Amino acid sequence: MAGYAKEPTVVSKPGFNAAEDGVALRTAMKGLGTDEQAIIDILTARSNSQRQEIAKFFTQEYGRNIIEDLKSELGGKFEDVILALMTPPVDFMAKQLHKAMSGIGTEEEALVEILCSRDNREVGEIVEAYEELYNRPLAEHLCSETSGDFRRLLTLIVTNCVKQGVRNAQTEVHPERARETAEMLYNAGEGKLGTDEEIFNKILAHECFGQLRLIFEAYKEVSGRTIEQALRDEVSGELKDAMLAIVECVQSPPTFFAKKLRKAMEGAGTDDQTLIRIIVSRSEIDLGNIKRDYERLYDKTLESSVKNETSGDYKRALVALIGGP
Questions:
Q1: Topology, domain 175-251
Q2: What does the angle CA 303 – CA 40 – CA 60 come to, to the nearest 5 degrees?
Q3: For 74-89, what is the mean pLDDT?
Q4: Of 63, 80, 84, 215, which residue is the least packed, with the fewest Cβ within 10 Å?
Q5: d(CA 279, CA 277)
Q6: Is the pLDDT of residue 256 over 80?
Q7: Which pLDDT does position 2 carry in this prediction?
Q8: How many other β-carbons are positioned within 10 Å of the β-carbon of residue 164?
Q9: DSSP letter string over 205-234?
Q10: pLDDT above 80 for 168
Q11: DSSP H or E run through 157
């Protein structure tokens, strides 16, 4: 991934005690009414691994499944946030991919956001989790739900990660190869009539993020234009969105996610699924960086935007994860 100091907004709680939290959560859900604020206070201020320990304690101590208890006590978008927090991160992403491909139509944007923004190791873990949860290879499901060059790019990313681990760790960069690869991209697009999407797919899916950063810099020297300008001219539709997502994440994942959050909240209605997915999944990675980029890009805080778009316990839970007042 791009070399930046990651700032999570949720970290492990010092002096954590799973039994203490488990008892407090049981109390919050027992009897008449539910103490939603207690649930928010505990679960938004613990790391995912700590939440898994609380779930284990719940089963051992009460013989109950905390997820089932939470489902029976909560509802709506607030329930969605809390259940997302209680799910191990790779399982949560695998479930989000499955959801994006289930039912009528496919949510291509969700597929792009999840698969094009992550490095080899992260995609590999999601692929494994997917097969374990659904007893079906992710690549096979993607093939049945997408088409054309877009399908080829996504399945290349997924199969590369599993089979050969082609997108190696970002330390394996080869500056001497960057210009040569940039020339290949130029010759496959701007340098000829028509576009050879296969070359673009191969390079963007195979090379690690560190190497891609060097290639994109070299591309400017070769072409006199940025790779984004070239992609906007040379490819279209979902394939263009996927390739631009890779480019943005190579350059700055926080900027990519800040723009995604903005898009989820602008216009009529809110894309709550995307809002929840990004805030929950990035809270332990770089939500602090995303907040800063959001403010820089839109001249308003992420907290204020979320507060305008949400309400009640749902709002309180998201704001707690963002680290707002």
A1: Annexin V; domain 1 (1.10.220)
A2: 150
A3: 98
A4: 63
A5: 6
A6: yes
A7: 52
A8: 11
A9: HHS-HHHHHHHHHHHHHHHSS-HHHHHHHH
A10: no
A11: helix 148-163
CATH architecture classification, 253-322: Orthogonal Bundle (1.10)
Q: Collect all residues with Cβ–Cβ distance below 8 Å to 163 and sequence separation of at least 6.
A: none
Closest by CA position to 271, among listed 88, 110, 144, 78: 110
Stated length of the chain: 325
Helix (H, G, I), strand (E, B) or coil at 63: coil
Joined tokens for residue 147: 């088409």
From the centroid of its chain, how far is CA 81? 15
In eight-state DSSP terms, residue 283 is: T
pLDDT at 163: 55
Angle between helices 272-282 and 287-298 (to 10 degrees): 130
The 10 Å Cβ neighbour count of residue 49 is 12
Token match 């939290």: residue?
Answer: 21
Task: Indicate the class that CATH gives domain 18-86.
Answer: mainly alpha
The identity of residue 159, as a single letter, is T
Q: Which residues contact 318 (CB under 8 A, 6 or more apart)?
A: 81, 275, 276, 279, 306, 310
Amino acid at 134: Y
Task: Give dist(CA 325, CA 307) in Å, integer.
Answer: 11
